Amino acid sequence: MITTVENELATYGYLQRPVDPYLNLVEEIQALKREKNAVILAHYYQESEIQDLADYIGDSLGLSQEAARTDARMIVFAGVHFMAEVAKIICPDKKVVLPDLKAGCSLADSAPADAFRRFREQYPDHVVISYINCSAEVKALSDIICTSSNAEKIIRSVPPEKPIIFAPDKNLGKYLIKKTGRDMLLWNGSCMVHEIFSVEKITRLKMRYPDAKLIAHPECEEAVLSMADYIGSTTGLLNFVGRDTANTYIVATEAGILHQMEKHYPDKTFIPAPPENNCACNNCPHMKLNTLEKLYLCLKYEQPEIVLDEDLRQRAYRPLARMLEISAG
Ligand code: 13P
Ligand code: SF4
User: For [4Fe-4S] cluster, which residues are the binding ones (predicted)?
Assistant: First the structure.
């Protein structure tokens, strides 16, 4: 029988419980974290107030490594569904909760498991490298997982005579083909946030700030990447700013990363790369579904929880473990 909680989670993605407007949510969350032996892992695209409460903030690789490392009883994942799912795949004995179950990812959605299975069956001799932004089902159909910070290393670990399928991000795939010289068969997926940056507006910004450097995430389109002074994962972008001598940066990725950039390097100026329309489309609508209230509720009620079929988890674990091994080496 389906319980009310299951219904509620299926409908809204989180428990709709009243939150006292006078509660100091920051203090409550800190107390609950201690009481429940929980750790908050957050991605750079989360709201600033959530980043400020996190025990660890990082890119997809750092977050997976931190999940593997923590001895907390519960992981509260302030990120999107595939990230929390990775934490559960790596740590089956821990409780993993996500503030909003509906925090998905357009890139992960662009590779439905059934279509991906049919595609891979056509190329049985190919090694399948999947970007971590995909479902557990797609991971289970892959040989090795990669993130934007270790993709080059993972590709180079495959013997040169072996043909490769790279999925699901075609922009990252094209960038890696250029970088490694390796011809790969690409799945036609993309991220809704990284596809909307305007080359024309970035060009105008560069004219206005001639000393500014353009730094970009490799999920951006080729036209933006070809103008960039540096390309890297979110952590890569943050670290680059730290060691680089410029004072101004045009940042072509989700705008949440600016919070850590401004916090770490208050003397530098960061300009979010402008999207095509006059919208806030450089904010990931999935990441931004998580709020402080939902974070509080999920810590308090330990819901919504990531639950995975054990057989699927084991099949998805193999290519992830391979990634962690290659990254560590
Ligand atoms: P990073 O691994 O570089 O943080 O990227 C995650 C992501 O979802 C980018 O859109
Ligand atoms: Fe997915 Fe793009 Fe959001 Fe990253 S920014 S979580 S790739 S939709």
Answer: 105, 191, 284
Query: Cα–Cα distance between 90 and 100 in angstroms, integer?
Result: 20
CB 123 within 8 A of CB 150: no
Question: Ligand 1 pocket: which residues have CB below 6 Å?
Answer: 59-60, 133, 147-148, 191, 217, 219, 233-234
Q: Ligand 2 centroid vs 127 CA: distance in angstroms?
A: 25
Task: Answer with the one of 169, 192, 215 that is the final residue of a domain.
Answer: 192
pTM of the model: 0.96
Could you list the pLDDT tens digit for every one of the 329 residues in the chain? Answer: 567 889 999 999 999 999 999 999 999 999 999 999 999 999 999 999 999 999 999 999 999 999 999 999 999 999 999 999 999 999 999 999 999 999 999 999 999 999 999 999 999 999 999 999 999 999 999 999 999 999 999 999 999 999 999 999 999 999 999 999 999 999 999 999 999 999 999 999 999 999 999 999 999 999 999 999 999 999 999 999 999 999 999 999 999 999 999 999 999 999 999 988 878 789 999 999 999 999 999 999 999 999 999 999 999 999 999 999 999 87
The amino acid sitting at 278 is N
Its domain, for residue 178, covers 107-192
Residue nearest to atom 7 of ligand 2 (CA): 191
The answer to whether residue 231 is domain-embedded is yes
Of 158, 192, 226, which residue sits at a domain end? 192
**Coil vs helix vs strand at 52:** coil
Judge whether 295 and 117 are in contact, CB under 8 Å.
no
143 touches ligand 2 (CB under 6 Å): no
What letter would DSSP give residue 13?
A: S
Q: Is residue 177 part of a domain?
A: yes
We report the CATH number of the domain holding residue 53 as 3.40.50.10800
